[in-house]
Automatic annotation (TrEMBL):
InterPro entries: MoaB/Mog-like_dom_sf (IPR036425), MoaB/Mog_dom (IPR001453), MPT_Adenylyltrnsfr/MoaC-Rel (IPR051920). It comes from Corynebacterium macginleyi. This is Molybdopterin biosynthesis protein MoeB. SUPFAM superfamilies: Molybdenum cofactor biosynthesis proteins. SMART domains: MoCF_biosynth. Keywords: Molybdenum cofactor biosynthesis.
Length: 159
């Protein structure tokens, strides 16, 4: 079986401007590599609909197995990651979303403000898209739930 490939996309004006380090993106890449997944260099994009849409479209169109979009899941004016992501997901994984929320709430009540979504771009195949808030804690919570299920997700793709 070929090695799975991942792309981490970070939607953050502050990281793009060099005002804040990309700790959440680095954490996601570290966890993915620990699961023997080949991670492309992170893609940092401005906040908002179009930049996230372009980065997500590129990742999906190139056959990336796992696409992680960090940031833009809150309720701010430029937090449009869930709206963009919904356009690509055909099989939404509501159960995983709930598990991630419950895990996050164990650490912080702020987890309830995140609108992260998870799903597959195709029924029985495609890319797994994971969105989460832009903190290392949110990334750890999300992958703490999702990473142990990677084999099951990819088995649904016939692997």
């Amino acid at each position: 079986m070929p090695q799975r490939k991942a792309q981490v996309i970070v939607s953050s004006d502050r990281i793009l401007a060099g005002e804040k380090p990309n700790r959440a993106g680095e954490k996601a890449a570290e966890i993915l590599r620990a699961h023997d997944i080949d991670v492309a260099p992170p893609r940092i994009v401005p906040e908002g609909f179009t930049p996230v849409d372009e980065a997500l479209r590129t990742a999906v169109d190139t056959g990336t197995d796992i696409v992680v979009v960090i940031g833009g899941t809150g309720i701010g004016a430029t937090n449009l990651t869930p709206e963009v992501t919904e356009r690509y997901i055909k099989a939404r994984l509501y159960g995983l979303e709930t598990q991630v929320l419950l895990r996050g709430l164990e650490s912080s009540p702020k987890a309830g403000l995140s609108r992260g979504i998870i799903g597959m771009t195709e029924h029985g195949g495609g890319s797994l898209i994971i969105t989460c808030a832009s903190s290392t804690g949110a990334v750890a919570d999300a992958f703490g739930v999702i990473a142990p299920l990677f084999a099951d997700v990819f088995r649904s793709r016939g692997e």
